[in-house]
Design a protein that fits this description.
By secondary structure, the chain is an alpha/beta fold. The chain has helices at 22-33, 47-81, 100-106, 111-114, 121-129, 132-138, 165-171, 200-205, 228-260, 267-274, 283-286, 299-320, 332-337; strands at 8-14, 37-45, 142-149, 155-159, 181-183, 186-189, 210-215, 276-281.
């Protein structure tokens, strides 16, 4: 087998972000084109969960090309249906949602008041396009779809064999817009409150030891928000980035503990410490968009973010695919835990991590992008 035939295995951790999830669609579309990449486990919350199940269902239907087609079908359906959130504004009022006065007024009511029947076109969009029975039985990848238990605030991770449409709806359920989703007698809200996306479960349980994070929300926002919409959007960004930062702190604590210990580590802590992470991020694109772009599936925004996702995935493949299976290409501590002014570009070879001794493999070559 030649060096250009080498395969790499990669988990995916897909962050939620409403319509901004079209960036992740672009990333997945580009990854699926590269025959060298085999997808392992996929973790997702909110729009990340929608992308995850579309990917898995498409792989069932027709392999890589089937997955690309399924993702495109789902996102085209989002545009046609005018589903504003996958999540920020109740679809029942979508025709009025572009009027600022109506947007502000809707915030004064609960979804149980302005949408007492619980109308949610996302349910129909999913059931029309995803065969959940087949997904549970035949999907070639493992899934972790996260939702938040309303009573405890803890994450509930639905695995592939238990994923039905209700699990995805629960993962995408913002409580100001949708009725809580009940599953087995428990109520759930958006997974972004508790796992956005889950990294700890992925790193500690997946047999694949590399994970690519697809991050939609910027972690640093310049300027002080002063307007009502800007303040609300900034608060939401902080809220939905918090679980990611928490998981990074857990992983970095595991690494620090093992480095300081005289005793050999074992189990979950070692798997967390040795896991290799990589990153494709949308922040430079999503931070330039208006806050309400998350809830309005405008064709231009969808196309822009899809193209941006493909572009950033191509850059990552060219620069970092050769590191998969060898070393991380992002320093989690520096990227997420240090102040922005102390962050510096990192050479993947120099990233300090606790690695298992592995046999060295030939570097991967680059493959021309298919038009």
């Amino acid at each position: 087998m030649g060096i250009f035939d080498s395969k790499v295995r990669l988990n995916l951790a897909l962050q939620g972000g409403g319509v901004h999830g079209a960036f992740t669609w672009g990333v997945l579309d580009r990854l699926l084109q590269d025959q060298r990449i085999e997808i392992g486990w996929v973790s997702g919350a909110s729009a990340g969960a929608v992308n995850a199940v579309a990917l898995a269902a498409g792989l069932c239907d027709g392999g890589r090309e089937g997955a690309r087609d399924k993702l495109a079908t789902v996102w085209h359906s989002v545009h046609k249906a005018g589903v504003p959130d996958l999540m920020r504004f109740n679809p029942f009022l979508y025709s009025l949602s572009r009027l600022p006065a109506v947007t502000q007024m809707a915030g004064l009511f609960s979804p149980y008041e302005f949408n007492p029947m619980g109308f949610d076109p996302l349910r129909r969009l999913l059931t029309d396009n995803i065969d959940f029975d087949r997904l549970r039985l035949s999907a070639p990848i493992e899934l972790i779809v996260s939702a938040t238990d309303v009573a405890t605030g803890r994450a509930r991770h639905f695995r592939r064999k238990e994923i039905a449409v209700e699990a995805v709806l629960a993962s995408a359920c913002l409580p100001t817009l949708h009725h809580a989703v009940e599953i087995e007698g428990r109520a759930y809200w958006d997974g972004g409150f508790s796992a956005n996306p889950d990294l700890v479960t992925l790193a500690s349980e997946s047999p694949v030891k590399d994970t690519l994070i697809v991050q939609l929300n910027p972690t640093t926002i310049g300027g002080l928000p002063r307007g009502v919409r800007e303040i609300s959007d900034h608060a939401n960004t902080l809220t939905f980035n918090a679980p990611l930062l928490r998981d990074v702190e857990i992983i970095e604590t595991a690494r620090k503990t093992l480095r300081a210990s005289w005793l050999p580590g074992h189990g979950t802590m070692v798997r967390l410490a040795r896991h290799r992470f990589h990153l494709v991020e949308a922040g430079r694109y999503t931070s330039a968009l208006k806050p309400d772009s998350k809830m309005q599936p405008d064709r231009g925004v969808l196309n822009y973010l899809f193209g941006a996702g493909r572009t950033e995935a191509s850059k990552w493949i060219e620069q970092h695919l050769k590191h998969v299976g060898r070393r991380a290409s992002i320093d989690l501590r520096q990227r997420y835990l240090l102040p922005a002014d102390l962050q510096t570009p990192v050479n993947p070879i120099e990233i300090s991590a606790i690695e298992e001794p592995e046999n060295s493999e030939p570097e991967l070559g680059s493959e021309p992008q298919r038009a």
